[in-house]
Specification:
alpha+beta; six-stranded antiparallel beta sheet; single chain; 249 residues
């Protein structure tokens, strides 16, 4: 995988029993967690960011926007976490995983809808976690198939809940977190009905999303399906370098 987060609730020696530091763009070691990060977008604002200081470390992996458009989302989150604890997650908008350690206590948290999966397993090297289920499963000494999960995958094309087809391999809970010896939910995904202009709100959010992504460096392309969504983006984003469509050769 070109992008990956992999870690262990332990020190660098425990980490290196499983992976080489050379596989990652950055390796961060704290008192109770060690994390390797690989992402070509590390230097791009609002993408994967890291921060390390005397009190611990922070990694925001994926895509995250802070209220004040801070240049380093990990540093912004670290400061807010020191003040608010897990409530600081409400200030991040996007699709991300957060690994944070402060004063020797570490936790891995998902965004509110778990749009980025975090897999974990308890192994001889400690509790291992990461975005690549195969990499995490390799740390399990004797993996066993979960037959009910396998049947669910065959019939539904998905395994529900926090399970996977490997008994010892689990997923972080929906809207939840993974700690060194526990998991839990954060209860951020709450429906709060209120009156507002749904059409205008949707239009504003779509425009904001297009503005954010069109400002990213590099060439810009669009997969054009012929539906309303792709045609809207084609009309709303300037300077597209490439456009692809799906059809018969």
């Amino acid at each position: 995988m070109k992008k990956e987060l992999f870690g262990v609730f332990g020190d660098a020696t425990q980490f290196e029993r499983l992976r080489s530091a050379e596989e990652f763009d950055r390796l961060l070691e704290g008192e109770s967690v060690t994390v390797g990060v690989r992402d070509h977008a590390l230097s791009i604002p609002h993408r994967t960011a890291t921060d390390h200081d005397a009190e611990g470390l922070c990694v925001v992996w994926g895509e995250a926007y802070t209220p004040a458009a801070h240049g380093n989302a990990a540093r912004w989150f670290r400061d807010r976490y020191d003040e608010l604890g897990s409530d600081a997650l409400a200030g991040l908008n996007g699709s991300f995983l957060v690994v944070v350690e402060r004063d020797g206590e570490a936790v891995v948290a998902t965004d509110s809808i778990r749009s980025r999966e975090c897999f974990y397993a308890d192994t001889p090297a400690g509790r291992v976690f990461g975005t690549d289920p195969i990499a995490v499963a390799r740390a399990i000494p004797s993996p066993q198939i979960d037959r009910s999960a396998m049947l669910e995958l065959v019939h539904l094309s998905v395994v529900t809940g926090d399970r996977t087809v490997v008994q010892q391999l689990r997923r972080a809970p929906f809207d939840g977190y993974v700690g060194p010896d526990a998991t839990g939910e954060l209860d951020r995904f709450v429906y709060e009905p209120r009156e507002f202009d749904y059409v205008q709100e949707l239009a504003d959010r779509l425009q904001r999303a297009m503005d954010r992504r069109s400002a990213l460096p590099g060439r810009k392309g669009l997969l054009l399906s012929g539906g309303y969504d792709s045609r809207t983006i084609l009309a709303g984003v300037d300077g597209l370098d490439r456009s692809f469509t799906i059809g018969r050769a």
